[in-house]
Amino acid sequence: MSEGPVLVLGASGFVGRSVCARLASRGLPLRALTRDPAKARPLAVLPGLEVVAGSPHDDAALAAALDGARAAVNLVGILHESRREPFEKVHVDLPRRLAGACARAGVRRLVHMSALHASRDGPSRYLRTRGLGEEAVREAGGSLRATILRPSVIFGRDDSFLNLFAPLVAALPVVPLAGAATRFQPVWVEDVAGAVAACLDDPATSGRAYDLCGPHVYTLAQIVRFVAAQLGHRRWIVALPGWAAYLQALVLEHLPGPVMTRDNLASMRRDSVCDCPFPAAFGIAPAAMEAIVPAYMAGAGAQGRFAGYRRRTGG
Ligand SMILES: NC(=O)c1ccc[n+]([C@@H]2O[C@H](COP(=O)([O-])OP(=O)(O)OC[C@H]3O[C@@H](n4cnc5c(N)ncnc54)[C@H](OP(=O)(O)O)[C@@H]3O)[C@@H](O)[C@H]2O)c1
């Protein structure tokens, strides 16, 4: 690898902040391309990190951000699409354009974050477009050496998963839950960051795709009960039948900043588990939720939750 910076797309996000901190701690110079520099402000404390304002959907901004870079890490992804930002644009066109831009800029190393069970035959538009994005990266060929990472759901202090359920279980004695029996294998954000760093370290990981899962499998109902227990509640969970889950998603997806859509529900038709150990190539023993979450969530009352909300929203 050259001496230039590692370009990180999606650096301002939940995973991006941990990835940047991990790479910076290894002394790597970093460049974060963001559409909103204010969102990237927490990254400013990292030594050797340069924030560049621009959209990765703009070819000129992408080319300028890649200039002199030693590698690129793509952490851009969305759970909910909009008319302006459909899944195809973010999950397929962007990785394809990024791979092409890397080739033109002479950047030979790319780490692309996808999702577990991404496939053109997947049950949801989210998983299908993620699968097509992986294909676009694989097809780039030439001198580009890409590694694809496919995590199950990722947990951590500022995640959008456990933190999604926290206000719900705090407010509701009975929780109506869609996909209650769907199984997940949550993986800690710091283990995902470690995997990204290991990929950049080890050229033998190029040309490969790795599933990233934590050590334990839980149903969604078990995960929600776990969150409730951390907050000192015992909650009754009502598993919604398929038709009621569909209606709930139909209503919720029309709210601003939707927490659930029919496409999310479709993704849950497939268990987010891999029945495989964390890839040995990374030398990481993945952490379980029970080992990490209580340190920041246990006993958090209303004040703690609001502090967490303020931290996540930069307020
Ligand atoms: N979190 C999970 O549980 C999970 C599980 C499986 C896979 N993943 C994948 O891991 C990656 C990182 O996830 P995350 O949880 O860190 O996501 P996140 O917090 O939502 O951050 C995603 C980043 O992508 C950029 N972005 C968002 N929408 C965009 C758009 N329409 N066009 C261009 N850039 C956009 C944003 O950067 P700017 O606003 O600064 O430009 C944002 O910081 C994503 O690819 C995600 O799909 C996450």
Q: In words, what does this structure look like?
A:
- The protein is an alpha/beta fold.
- It folds into two domains: 6-152 and 187-212, NAD(P)-binding Rossmann-like Domain (Rossmann fold); 162-183 and 215-272 and 284-313.
- It has helices spanning 14-25, 59-66, 87-105, 125-139, 162-171, 189-201, 220-230, 242-252, 262-267, 289-297, 302-313, and strands spanning 6-9, 30-34, 49-53, 71-74, 109-113, 145-151, 154-155, 174-177, 183-184, 187-188, 209-212, 218-219, 236-239.
- The strands form four sheets. A seven-stranded parallel β-sheet has the order 3-2-1-4-5-6-11, with helices on both faces. A two-stranded parallel ribbon has the order 7-10. Strands 8-13 form a two-stranded parallel ribbon.
- Helix 3 (87-105) runs parallel beside helix 4 (125-139).
- The structure holds NADP nicotinamide-adenine-dinucleotide phosphate.
In short:
The protein has helices spanning 14-25, 59-66, 87-105, 125-139, 162-171, 189-201, 220-230, 242-252, 262-267, 289-297, 302-313, and strands spanning 6-9, 30-34, 49-53, 71-74, 109-113, 145-151, 154-155, 174-177, 183-184, 187-188, 209-212, 218-219, 236-239. It is α/β, with parallel strands linked by helices. Helix 3 (87-105) links the parallel strand 4 (71-74) and strand 5.
